[in-house]
Write a structure and sequence with these properties.
Blueprint (H helix, E strand, L loop, with lengths): L11 E7 L5 H9 L17 E7 L3 E7 L11 H11 L4 E7 L6 H12 L4 E6 L9 H4 L2 H8 L3 E3 L8 H11 L19 E5 L13 H12 L3 E5 L4 H8 L5 E4 L4 H7 L6 E3 H8 L3 H7 L11 E6 L10 H14 L4 E6 L12 E4 L7 H13 L4 E3 H8 L3 H4 L4 H5 L6
Parallel strand pairs: 1-3, 1-4, 4-5, 5-6, 7-8, 7-9, 9-10, 11-12, 11-13, 13-14
Antiparallel strand pairs: 2-3
The structure holds iron/sulfur cluster.
The site of iron/sulfur cluster (SF4) has 13 residues, from helix 7.
Amino acid sequence: MSLNHTPLGNRVHIGFFGRRNAGKSSVVNAVTGQELAVVSEVKGTTTDPVQKAMELLPLGPVVIIDTPGIDDEGALGELRVKKTRQILNKTDAAVLVLDGIYGMAEAEQELIHLFEEKKIPFVLAINKTDLLEEGISKVQKDERLKAYWENGTCISVSARTGYHIQELKEKIAGLTLQGESSKRIVGDLIRPGDFVVLVVPVDEAAPKGRLILPQQQTIRDILDADAAAITVKDNELKELLQRLGKKPSMVITDSQVFGKVCADVPREIPLTSFSILFARYKGNLQTVVGGAAGIETLQEGDKILISEGCTHHRQCGDIGSIKLPNWLREYTKKRLQIELTSGTEFPEDLSEFQLVIHCGGCMLNEREMKYRLKSAIEQGIPMTNYGIAIAYMQGILRRSVELFPDVLAKLPKKF
Ligand code: SF4
């Protein structure tokens, strides 16, 4: 993704679902105006979800997810339900494409049940209406669809002729909460004219020639607040602070060098980390701060899930795979089992784990992060994040959340 694109985590995720041969992929292509999906006369051509970020008017920046066709032969298989649930965890709005000739069957009803269970707004696109001999009136008489026609959830479309495709787009736009989010990463904590120092270690694990997404987004948010961002490597921070002649409004550091940075930043300058700011941005700071207590109760042989949002190339280097496991073992002095997952892989059943440590999740949308946290809370498994776990183990968690009085007020005394 190029730098001038909206990050995936900030885009509305729209999932297209439907039975094989309902023309789902053709509807996706008609809506997006692109050959996003593989279209074929052969049933079930789409075997894995196809995902693409794009601008879709009148919605703005979105991610379109074309899902594998559901089974024509009745109920969804167990594995298919599991896969569908994974996709639904990040779906902000769903489009269920029905074949106008065959109407509603058990598989569609199951999907609607899943949408309702996950509280996902949806629209039913009745496709192939150009092929209906009696026109749309026959489908409108289908008892199983009656309530949906009445409440405006249904729309008749034809991917082949383009009939009602624009109206479908408008319906989808109506499902999603529109308007710019008022949430800020750091912009609400600073004033115009302020300057902020960002500490970014450039070691072998750092991506070549660029900053990672959380760093880019933080800098942009500082600029949007009419403030200035000064970015420095950790080993040059001390000298920079001495040379500046004026105290920065705050220092934001990569969590990996938290300990060193904390020692170099005078106590009166507020200090926090990118992952703490992102936990606040995603609305889960309080919970993940509390989850750090789970580190203290780890026992010999306990299993920890470390989860990252990046799918292909790990942007956060080796922090989750090497550094964090080593720090955990050193801190607890216990033999711990570590399991690492990435992208959409996040186990539904967390019962084998005693602790979950998640990355900042900048690639995941808010719905997915909230689902993961809720899942851990419901199963009674403490969940924290990289920056908070590191700050906790280095004894600097209290200092790193001082910028957030409501979180500080609830911090246990031992932290
Ligand atoms: S590992 Fe997590 S925090 Fe790092 S870039 Fe990927 S999604 Fe963002």
